Amino acid sequence: MYGNQYCQLKKAQNQLHQAGIQVKVNLLEGDNSIVGELCNFAVQHHIDLIIMGAFGHSRLRQFFTGSHTTEMIHKTPVSLLIIR
User: Fold this and answer.
1) Which site in 5, 25, 31, 61 is 20 to 30 Å from 19, CA atoms measured?
2) Distance between CA atoms of 62 and 64, rounded to whole angstroms?
3) What confidence tier does 50 reach under pLDDT thresholds 50, 70, 90?
4) CA-CA distance, 78 to 45, in Å (whole number)?
5) Are the C-beta atoms of 76 and 43 separated by less than 8 Å?
6) Helices 68-75 and 34-44: crossing angle, nearest 10°?
């Protein structure tokens, strides 16, 4: 199930490496929500800062589907930088 996502992560890692940017990729799996997995990973790996993009969605869509960005703001135990 996660093979394609991992291939995409490795492709992005290779492109960044070719541009001179060193990155490490991780594909998170688990029973928690996306936000829960990100928060757990940050704590377990002593990460001090999470940087994430925020995408604008309509208020109606956000009401029905929620927002990972909003949930991260409320739940993350580390500093969060949101880029819009």
Assistant:
1) 5
2) 5
3) very high
4) 12
5) no
6) 40
On whether the CB atoms of residues 38 and 28 are closer than 8 A, the answer is yes
Amino acid at 83: I
- Closest listed residue to residue 25, CA positions, set 13, 38, 43: 13
Asked if 23 and 51 touch (Cβ cutoff 8 Å), the reply is no
- Positive or negative CA dihedral for 72, 73, 77, 82? positive
Nearest 5°: phi and psi at 54? -115, 130
The Cα 15–Cα 10 span in angstroms is 9
Residue labelled with tokens 């490795």 = 10
Q: Is the pLDDT of residue 45 over 70?
A: yes
